[in-house]
Every structure is written in structure tokens, then in C-alpha cells.
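A favour, since you know our C-alpha cells better than I do. What I am after is a single protein written out in full by you. Could you add the entry underneath, on a fresh line?


***
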Amino acid sequence: MDENTLIEKIISEVDKLFPRKCSCCGKEFKSFAEFLELTTILQHAASDNFIILNRNNFFDILALRNCECQSTIAIPCAVNDEFKKELVTLITEEAKRLNSTPKKIAGILRDKIVQRVLHPKE
């Protein structure tokens, strides 16, 4: 799967999670774009603000962002279990190929997704 197709698939998967509310303050985010605009990356963990799970045949990637109330909201990067596995596998393989870490590759991918969602024409 090429990078653009992967990014579009992730965006499509995450879009399915909205609307969504902050469990702490009740703020509603109507779309993925609104969620990105109105939340921030955790300042104390800017390079480590997601969790990659690959344990006992359970796969997931959770992106962590702060609501304006400072509550941390975790958003899965995929809804479909098969795609979760595929995504974790792709990131892990790319990290090995580039002699990097899965978190670094996921961070690069995250930045490209945020850019595409917030600035689709650029």
C-alpha cells in the first residue's frame, strides 16, 4: 500500500469515530478535523504521544491528545481489527527497513495525517 492510500485509509477509519465527546468536560468534537483543531499534543510527551500495541495477537495504535480541559483523549488510528494489525505491521516493517523505531515512524505518519486533515489542499 502506498503512503497516500495508507494516509487516506487511516483518515477514513478515524472519521468513523466522530462525533465524539471528552469524557471529562463533555466538549463535543463533530469531526476529526475539529478534534485536531481544538486539542493539542501532550506537551510533556510531544514525541511520545501515541501507544503502539502488538501483544498476544492484539494490535492497536492510540493517538493521545489533550482537550482544552487538559484531559487526555485517546483516539484509535483504526476501527477495523484487520486494518489495525496491518497498520502495526506496516509501521514495524518500515522501522526495521529504515533502522528506526516504530514510534518514530508512527510519529512521522501522524504528522502527515494531521497536515492532510488540517490543510488538505497544500
The beta strands are 20-21, 28-29, 40-41, 50-55, 58-66, 72-76. The first helix runs from residue 3 to 15. The chain has a mean pLDDT of 87.
